[in-house]
UniProtKB/TrEMBL annotation:
Pfam families, sorted: ALP_N (PF17989)
Start and end residues of each Actin-like protein N-terminal domain: 11-148
InterPro entries (alphabetical): ALP_N, ATPase_NBD
Signal peptide per UniProt: none
CDD domains noted in UniProt: ASKHA_NBD_ParM-like
Protein name: ParM/StbA family protein
Length: 276
């Protein structure tokens, strides 16, 4: 029998929506677009979504990428927007429980009370959404909003001072954690977000110069001998990784780098909710 309740981690990024629960992990493109009738209809791909939410229809995922005339990837600072709500609702429809204990993400620089409370108010409650003709009703019992980038700490909980660099589509997040025995701290003064400097925000293909820029900024605070964990989709780009290694020799790409925020958030969520 399907599980009825559980912790649901959703890293709803500008480019990809990554989810991790006790029983599954997955990702799909976050892109959304207007619904339109098509004359040529292809067999459906795994992440082709036709969505009906609050009386409106949308295309989402791989379907919006190819078929929407206005495929949108929201680059607003705040995640208090329908675009991000839809990513969460589609995820819950596809992979969620009847009752969900949600943990979701914002960039480090947006991890403040107004944003966290705003997101919580938008999402807590009972919801109904139709995806590809199938209606599901579920509740979001509670919402915890975690900081992107440093959430990856919870995967290995590394000792000492550790740096995390999260290269995404909208943002580049940089974070610092300090673990001494059982005490763990985020170091706020050595963490933050380069807003609008993500790979799609800048539309760059000059990957080495992109890495030079990021490393140049970080060297104001970080040392070349620091242990740096790379995550986010940009960690899959070898030109970026190799260039960053010239500045930070102890750079390591995390396993499943694009899913690392969601995985770390799931492990954190399990702790704060006290359940799986
Ligand atoms: N296989 C790959 N090779 C090279 N680059 C890749 C690969 N997969 C993804 N990327 C890059 O990663 C980017 C997306 O990264 P990611 O999924 O971490 O973004 P996001 O979390 O949605 O964005 P943000 O956190 O900024 O909202 C893409 O824009 C692309 O440039
Ligand atoms: Mg991201």
């Amino acid at each position: 029998m399907a599980e009825k309740a559980g912790v649901f981690s959703c890293d709803n990024g500008g480019h990809s929506t990554c989810i991790v629960t006790a029983k599954s992990f997955s990702q799909f493109p976050s892109v959304k677009g207007e619904f339109r009738e098509r004359t040529l209809v292809n067999p459906s791909g795994t992440h082709d979504y036709i969505v009906e939410f609050k009386g409106r229809r949308y295309m989402a995922g791989t379907l919006a990428q190819t078929e929407s005339r206005f495929p949108m990837q929201m680059h607003s600072r705040s995640k208090q927007h329908l675009f991000f709500d839809l990513s969460t609702m589609i995820s819950l429809h596809q992979f969620g429980y009847d009752k969900n204990y949600l943990i979701t993400s914002v960039p480090i620089s947006m991890h403040h009370e107004e944003e966290k409370e705003g997101i919580r108010k938008r999402l807590v409650g009972e919801w109904s959404i139709i995806v590809n003709g199938i209606e599901r009703t579920f509740t979001i019992e509670d919402v915890k909003v975690a900081p992107e980038t440093v959430s990856a700490f919870w995967i290995h909980e590394p000792e000492g001072k550790t740096r995390f660099l999260d290269i995404g589509s909208r943002t580049v997040g940089y974070g610092t954690t300090l673990k001494e025995g059982s005490v763990m701290k985020y170091i706020d003064s050595e963490s933050g977000t380069f807003m609008g400097k993500g790979l799609e925000a800048t539309e760059t293909t000059n990957y080495e110069e992109f890495a030079d820029f990021i490393a140049g900024k970080l060297l104001a605070q970080w040392d070349e001998n620091d242990k740096v964990y790379l995550l986010g989709g940009g960690a899959k780009n070898k030109l970026i990784v190799n260039q960053l290694k010239k500045y930070f020799k102890k750079t390591e790409v995390m396993e499943n780098a694009q899913l690392a925020n969601a995985k770390g958030m799931y492990l954190l969520g399990r702790n704060v909710y006290g359940r799986a």
